[in-house]
Amino acid sequence: TVKPRNTSHFQSVNPSIRKDEAKVVDIVNIEDLGDSTAFCRCWRSAKFPYCDGSHGRHNRENCDNTGPVVIKK
Ligand code: FES
């Protein structure tokens, strides 16, 4: 028999993005990127996986320091 795991101590990183998917995976073709593209790492962007600046509000409200990763050609 499989024992149910106690998940009460788990914290979710992803609060709301595509929760119907078992795993959120994005594949981006490097040929489609502009000279500079910012990817979200705070999991709050409405344009995920791209950064829309929502990390600023998240950081102010939660004393956090997240920000995007920027890919430059
Ligand atoms: Fe998430 Fe900018 S919106 S890192």
UniProtKB/TrEMBL annotation:
The keyword Metal-binding applies. One of its GO terms (cellular component) is endoplasmic reticulum membrane. One of its GO terms (molecular function) is 2 iron, 2 sulfur cluster binding. It is a single-pass membrane protein. Residues 23-61 form the Iron-binding zinc finger CDGSH type domain. Its main location: endoplasmic reticulum. Its cofactor is [2Fe-2S] cluster. It is found in: Endoplasmic reticulum membrane. Keywords: 2Fe-2S, Iron, Iron-sulfur, Membrane, Metal-binding, Transmembrane, Transmembrane helix. Belongs to the CISD protein family. CISD2 subfamily. This is Iron-binding zinc finger CDGSH type domain-containing protein. It comes from Ranatra chinensis. The chain holds residues 56 to 128 of 128 of the full protein.
